[in-house]
Write a structure and sequence with these properties.
Elements: E1 2-6, H1 13-24, E2 28-30, H2 31-39, H3 43-66, E3 73-75, H4 84-92, E4 94-100, H5 103-110, H6 124-142, E5 145-148, H7 154-162
Parallel strand pairs: 1-3, 1-4, 2-3, 4-5
Helix pairs in contact: 1-7, 2-3, 3-4, 5-6
Bound molecules: shikimate-3-phosphate.
Shikimate-3-phosphate is lined by residues 9, 13-14, 32, 43, 77-79, 116-117, 119.
C-alpha cells in the first residue's frame, strides 16, 4: 500500500514524505518533481507557458502513471485532489494522509518561495484562506487520516506516519 500525502502547499508533504521514505526504506515520489522531470520545466515556467489547466493535465497524466506503484511514499501537489479521476487513481493502492496547518502558518512557511506561482489574483494570505475554504471539504472527504502539523515537530510527525 502506498502512503499518499495530500494537503495544501506548505503543510510539509515533500519534507515529511522524503524523510519517511528514507526511514522506511521505501521509494519516494513527488508529483511536482515528476512533472518538472517530464517537461524539463520548473512549475512557474509551466504555469506561465501553458497555464494552470495545462499543468493540471500533466499532473493527471503523472498520477495515472504512478497508480501502479505499491509500496511508495507519494507526495502530491496541493491541487492534485481537485480532479476526481486523480483521487480514484491515488486511492487504488494508496492510504491518503491529509497534512493540515492554519492559513497563517502556511503563509509563513511558503513566504518568498519562487517555486509556487500564484493561483489567484489575491494577496498571499487571502489566496490561502480562499483556497483552503474551497479545498478543505474535499481534502477531508478523501483523506483516510488527518494529521495536524501545527503542534508537532517533524520527528513526532514521522513517528506517527511510521506506524501506518
Ligand atoms: C499547487 C501546489 C503545488 C504545485 C502547484 C499547484 C496547488 O504543490 O502542484 O504549484 O494548486 O496547491 P505543493 O503543494 O507541493 O506546493
Amino acid at each position: 500500500m502506498n502512503i499518499v500525502l495530500i494537503g495544501f502547499r506548505g503543510t510539509g508533504k515533500t519534507t515529511l514524505g522524503k524523510a519517511l521514505a528514507e526511514k522506511l526504506n521505501r521509494p519516494f515520489l513527488d508529483t511536482d518533481a515528476l512533472i518538472c522531470e517530464q517537461t524539463g520545466l520548473s512549475i512557474p515556467n509551466i504555469f506561465s507557458s501553458i497555464g494552470e489547466k495545462g499543468f493540471r493535465n500533466i499532473e493527471s497524466e503523472i498520477i495515472q502513471k504512478i497508480q501502479t506503484k505499491e509500496d511508495a511514499i507519494i507526495s502530491c501537489g496541493g491541487g492534485a485532489i481537485l480532479d476526481p479521476e486523480n483521487i480514484k487513481h491515488l486511492k487504488k493502492n494508496g492510504f491518503l494522509v491529509l497534512l493540515t496547518a492554519t492559513a497563517e502558518t502556511i503563509e509563513q512557511r511558503i513566504r518568498g518561495s519562487l517555486e509556487r506561482p500564484s493561483l489567484t489574483e489575491k494577496e498571499p494570505l487571502e489566496e490561502i484562506r480562499h483556497l483552503l475554504e474551497i479545498r478543505n471539504p474535499l481534502y477531508r472527504k478523501v483523506a483516510d487520516l488527518v494529521i495536524d502539523t501545527e503542534s508537532k515537530t517533524p520527528e513526532e510527525l514521522i513517528q506517527q506516519l511510521e506506524t501506518l
